[in-house]
Amino acid sequence: MSGRPVKHSVTLKRHRTSISLESAFWDGFCEIARARGQTLNALAAEIDAGRADDIGLASAIRVFVLETLRR
Questions:
Q1: 33-46, pLDDT tens digit by residue?
Q2: Residue 26 CB neighbours (<10 A)
Q3: Cα(41)–Cα(16) distance, rounded to whole angstroms?
Q4: How many CB atoms lie within 10 A of CB 29?
Q5: What is d(CA 49, CA 71) in angstroms, rounded to the nearest whole number?
Q6: With contact defined as beta carbons under 8 Å apart, do 21 and 12 qualify?
Q7: CA atoms within 13 A on the CB side of 63
Q8: What is the mean pLDDT of residues 43-70?
Q9: Does residue 2 contact residue 23 with C-beta atoms inside 8 Å?
Q10: Residue 35: exposed, middle, or buried by beta-carbon count in 10 A (0-12, 13-18, 19+)?
Q11: Is 47:64 a contact under the CB 8 Å cutoff?
């Protein structure tokens, strides 16, 4: 397992954007979306809508994954 972030693309508000996540966070993000029956784009949009303006999307996804998997 690599600790280096890898770029992934998601679509938010009809625009492609890239997020760099380590494989463990990307895998967790995908697992959560599957468990919720959501697409990755829908889950990314949900996280994006709930984050503060000064928090990057990748950071918000990391925190979301960590908090969700801790429950």
A1: 999 999 999 999 99
A2: 19
A3: 10
A4: 23
A5: 22
A6: no
A7: 11
A8: 96
A9: yes
A10: exposed
A11: yes
